[in-house]
Task: inverse folding
């Protein structure tokens, strides 16, 4: 296998960054995604929310083929990633991915974490790779940590390095898989601040998150998933402010007030009586409501 | 207070037991006869310098070749055992089961005598070459399993992170997985190295000449010529002089690495 495949050329006229059609994914007998149609336009920031097990992370992982879909189509900037002819490594090099558990390479210094794929995949010279890496470390506010090893960084710092690592590949779009869920509450803010900055710069972002305040403030669109389906989507003010579906209302009520959880099966929001949300629901959900 | 007193008494009891055993052994041993059979300084002196410049040197050289060769075999078969292609997995399984299951002595014998007759293949390096190849095959089988376990112990997220950056499967293995796997398996690999040092004593089955003898064969020869076991004792001391500094060195390296991480 070569590390330098011919990079598929993106047509700048194509406005669709990610397009997913009829996507299904099963693990054994369990169907996690039951037919998802979904798209993200270039420059759009989309937050995907929903209860644990709703399939939102699986959907994200199907986009860069970390999970192989059972059926359906996934297109990245017009390239069919499920086509066996497609060089998936070349497509992935253009999609930045940030994981819940950071997944920094523990045997490499921070700087090397940022340069290794630039040199091995993008074939950049060492000097160029280091220059790009330093620029991105500065972007996430960790310029002084370049010679540290991941184990010596806090969770928030590790996640910022992970974002810088993804950015160093100059991706066209970024995927975030619950990027703050593994962090201590006091470290969430620094990571969200970096992501907020990215969104402001016009990066195309798909963010699976439990941070409702972030979704409300930063997202162009919020997608609510439950039971392997997209239940509703729309502007954050609509989905989070006046959700039309009872399952969305139930989920939001629980996220905003964990003590609200009814005695019935907490995952089955559809059957639970849709509790009226507390008055003054214009107030943004609290950022610490990521208790899943 | 009472409990600590009792603990002190118990500890004292164990010390006393230890001293008693040492004294008993010292008193009951026939020191003079021991010295006559195993500690003849004149015979020990006659072993030098050959036992070092020929025998010990050969032991170290054979071990090094077998270890490096075993590492290569182990790596190849470990990756094959994890291959998505079934025939590769089967081949690796057969190799590992056969050479881990057979006594090393039989493997060396087979390479040295059965292989040339059965296939007309002669291993370069003569008897020693055949013997060392046998050791390589055995070491490779053990190391394949060790390396496989090391590869599998690297978290899945590491592979996902590397692949999501666009690295190919082989690049991910070489740059991300193997460096972490080898850090994890330094202790079992050290163990394998020490076992190999001792297994070189089995090379005699392939046949040896004056210049190719390793420590044990050399010492056995000298012991029978002099009708005295002193050369075996000298060989034993030399084995420990090789293995103990090595294991101490690895332990030190590990501690240093643990601190750096």
Result:
């Amino acid at each position: 296998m070569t590390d330098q495949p011919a990079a598929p050329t993106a047509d700048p006229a194509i406005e669709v960054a990610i397009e997913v059609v009829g996507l299904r994914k099963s693990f054994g007998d369990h169907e996690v995604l039951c037919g998802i149609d979904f798209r993200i336009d270039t420059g759009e920031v989309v937050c995907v929310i929903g209860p644990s097990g709703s399939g939102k992370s699986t959907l994200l992982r199907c986009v860069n083929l970390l999970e192989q879909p059972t059926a359906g189509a996934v297109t990245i900037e017009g390239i069919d990633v499920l086509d066996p002819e497609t060089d998936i490594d070349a497509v992935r090099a253009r999609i930045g991915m940030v994981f819940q558990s950071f997944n920094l390479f523990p045997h490499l210094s921070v700087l090397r974490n940022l340069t290794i794929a630039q040199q091995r995949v993008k074939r950049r010279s060492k000097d160029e790779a280091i220059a790009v890496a330093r620029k991105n470390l500065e972007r996430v506010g960790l310029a002084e940590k370049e010679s540290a090893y991941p184990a010596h960084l806090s969770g928030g710092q590790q996640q910022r390095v992970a974002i810088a690592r993804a950015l160093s590949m100059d991706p066209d779009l970024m995927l975030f898989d619950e990027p703050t869920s593994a962090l201590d509450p006091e470290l969430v803010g620094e990571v969200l601040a970096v992501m907020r900055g990215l969104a402001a710069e016009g990066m195309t972002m798909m963010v699976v998150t439990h941070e409702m305040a972030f979704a409300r403030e930063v997202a162009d669109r919020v997608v609510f998933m439950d039971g392997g389906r997209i239940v509703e989507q729309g502007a954050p003010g609509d989905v989070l402010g006046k959700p039309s579906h009872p399952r969305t209302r139930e989920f939001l009520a629980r996220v905003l007030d964990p003590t609200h959880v009814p005695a019935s099966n907490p995952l089955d929001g559809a059957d639970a009586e849709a509790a009226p949300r507390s008055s003054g629901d214009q107030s943004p959900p609290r950022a610490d409501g990521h208790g899943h | 207070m009472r409990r600590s007193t009792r603990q002190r008494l118990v500890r004292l009891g164990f010390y006393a037991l230890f001293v008693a055993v040492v004294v008993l052994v010292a008193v009951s041993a026939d020191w003079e006869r021991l010295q006559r059979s195993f500690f003849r300084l004149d015979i020990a002196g006659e072993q030098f310098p050959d036992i070092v410049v020929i025998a010990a040197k050969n032991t170290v050289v054979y071990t090094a070749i077998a270890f490096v060769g075993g590492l290569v075999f182990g790596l190849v078969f470990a990756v094959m055992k994890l291959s998505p292609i079934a025939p590769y997995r089967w081949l690796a399984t057969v190799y590992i089961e056969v050479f881990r299951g057979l006594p090393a002595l039989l493997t060396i014998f087979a390479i040295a005598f059965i292989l040339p007759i059965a296939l007309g293949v002669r291993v370069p390096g003569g008897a020693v070459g055949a013997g060392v190849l046998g050791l390589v095959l055995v070491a490779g089988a053990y190391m394949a399993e060790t390396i496989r376990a090391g590869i599998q112990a690297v978290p899945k997220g590491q592979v996902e992170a590397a692949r999501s950056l666009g690295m190919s499967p082989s690049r991910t293995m070489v740059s991300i997985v193997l460096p972490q796997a080898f850090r994890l398996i330094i202790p079992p690999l050290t163990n394998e190295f020490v076992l190999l040092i001792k297994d070189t004593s089995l090379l005699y089955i392939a046949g040896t000449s004056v210049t190719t003898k390793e420590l044990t064969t050399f010492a056995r020869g000298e012991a029978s010529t002099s009708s005295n076991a002193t050369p075996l004792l000298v060989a034993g001391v030399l084995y420990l002089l090789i293995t103990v500094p090595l294991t101490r060195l690895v332990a030190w390296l590990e501690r240093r690495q643990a601190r750096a991480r």
